[in-house]
Amino acid sequence: MSGLALDGVVVRRGGFALGPVGLSVAPGTATALLGPSGAGKTTLLRAVAGFLPLDAGSIRLDDRRVDGLPPERRRFGFVPPNLGLFPHRRVRQNVAYPLAIAGRPDAAERTRHWIERFGLARLADRYPAELSTGERQRVAMARALAAEPAALLWDEPLAALDVEGRDTLLQLLQELLDTVRLPLVLVTHDPSTAAALAAEYVVLNAGRVRFAGDPRALAAAPLDRFLARFLGYDNLYSPADLATVGARPIGRTLLAAAGPGGVAVPPSALTWRPGPTGGCAVAAVRATPAGWVVALQDGPLVFRVRVDGPVPGVRVGDPVALELDAAALRPLDGPVEAT
User: Fold this and answer.
1) 207 with 194: CB under 8 angstroms?
2) Distance (Å, rounded) from C-alpha 59 to C-alpha 329?
3) Could you report the per-residue pLDDT of 95-115, keeping only the tens digit for each?
4) Measured between alpha carbons, how far is 144 from 151 in angstroms, rounded to an integer?
5) Is the Cβ–Cβ distance between 130 and 99 less than 8 Å?
6) Cα–Cα distance, 149 to 74 (Å, whole number)
7) Any idea what DSSP says for residue 223?
8) How would you classify the pairing of strands 330-332 and 262-265?
C-alpha cells in the first residue's frame, strides 16, 4: 500500500523487548507514538529509521520492503530529540548537507527553496547556537525535507518550545501534511500535540502496544494509569489508596468499581455542592493555568475538581456534599510487566 506500514515489528535490546508492533500511516496523515518514559517509543522510531536492527517483522514504504536496507537508502526524514544539527555549520550548510552527500546538482536551488519555505532566509548564515529553539526546529525540518524523503519520523517535535513556538510549528507540520502529503510518525508525551496532528495513536507501555487506533476509540478502551492521565482524569486511586476506605460510602463505591490497577473517576462521575456531609470538606482552592481547582477530602482520599471560574464563598475547611456516579467510574488495569 502507499505510505508506511509496520507488520509484527519486534526489537530487543539487552533485557528490553519491544513489540510486536503493527501500524499503517497513509500519505498526508500522522500517527502519534505515546507512552511513559521507557515505553519503547524512541526505540521503535530508531528501528524504523534503520539505526536499530529488527528481531522480527517487516517495514514497508510505498509497498517496498525497506527493513533490510541501510538508513541512507530507506528514504526517511528522521529528526531526533536533539535535532542533530551540526553546530559548526551554518543554517544554509545544515539544510544543504543531505543534498551535498547525495551529490545533487540542484543542491543550491533546493536548499534555497526549503530555507525560504520555513522562513529562514534571514538566518541562513547563522550557526545553530545563535538560533532560538523554534528556529532550530525549523532548520531541522527544512533539512529533513530537503532530501525528499518518502516519510517523516520526528521524535518530540515540540519539546522545549514556548506556546507561540509550539503553535507556529504545529501549523507548519499541518501544512506539510496537507501539501507535501508524506506519512508522519511522531513521538510525543504531549496530548495536545497528538490531538492536533494525529489521525491514529499507538500507545506503548513497557514495550507492548497498549492501544492502537482512532483517538475517538481511546476513550472507550480499557484504561491503565497512563491512558487515564492522557485522557485528563485527575482522580486515580490505586489498590493501596483504596485499602483503608471501605468503611466509608464513597470508598465502598470506588472499591466496587475498581479493577486490578484501581479506579479512575472521570469528571462526569463526580458532583459536589456546599453542604454538610459525612466528613467531606474543602481541602484546597487554587488557580492554575487551566482554570480553578477545588480539592475535596473524604477521609484519606482527595478528589480534585476543575471549575471554569472563581469559586466565591468556598473556603478551605467548608463542608461539602460529594456524590459519585457509580456507572461512570472506570476500572484500571494493572501495570504491564516488561518481558
Assistant:
1) no
2) 40
3) 998 888 777 878 888 898 989
4) 10
5) no
6) 9
7) B
8) antiparallel
Q: Are 232 and 299 in contact (CB under 8 A)?
A: no
Average pLDDT over residues 136-142: 87
Whole-angstrom Cα distance, residue 1 to residue 177? 18
pLDDT for res 160: 64
Question: Which among 55-64, 230-239, 247-256 has the top mean pLDDT?
Answer: 55-64
Sign of the four-CA dihedral 1, 208, 266, 195: negative
Residue 291, phi then psi, degrees to nearest 5: 130, -170
Q: Any idea where the domains of the chain sit in the sequence?
A: 4-221, 226-332
**HEC per residue, 27-44:** CCCEEEEECCCCCCHHHH
> Rounded CA gap, 135 and 119, in Å?
9
SS3 state at 277: coil
- Burial (0-12, 13-18, 19+ Cβ within 10 Å), 11: buried
Where does 4-221 sit in CATH, by number? 3.40.50.300
State the Cα–Cα distance between residues 168 and 130, nearest whole angstrom: 19
The answer to whether 45 and 185 have CB atoms below 8 angstroms apart is yes
**Could you identify the residue written with the cell 484519606?**
300
Write the burial class of residue 163 (CB in 10 Å: 0-12 exposed, 13-18 middle, 19+ buried). Answer: exposed
Name the burial class of residue 88, with classes exposed (0-12), middle (13-18) and buried (19+) by CB atoms within 10 angstroms of its CB.
exposed
Kindly report the average pLDDT of the chain as a whole number: 85
Q: Count CB-CB contacts under 10 A for residue 129.
A: 9
CA 223 to CA 322: how far, in whole Å? 24
Average pLDDT over residues 242-246: 81
**What's this model's pTM, rounded to 2 decimal places?**
0.76
Residue ranges in the chain assigned as alpha helix (H): 41-49, 91-102, 107-117, 133-146, 163-179, 191-197, 215-218, 225-230, 239-242, 249-257
Which residue is listed with cell 477521609? 299
CA distance 270 to 329: 9
Q: Decide if pLDDT at 94 tops 50.
A: yes
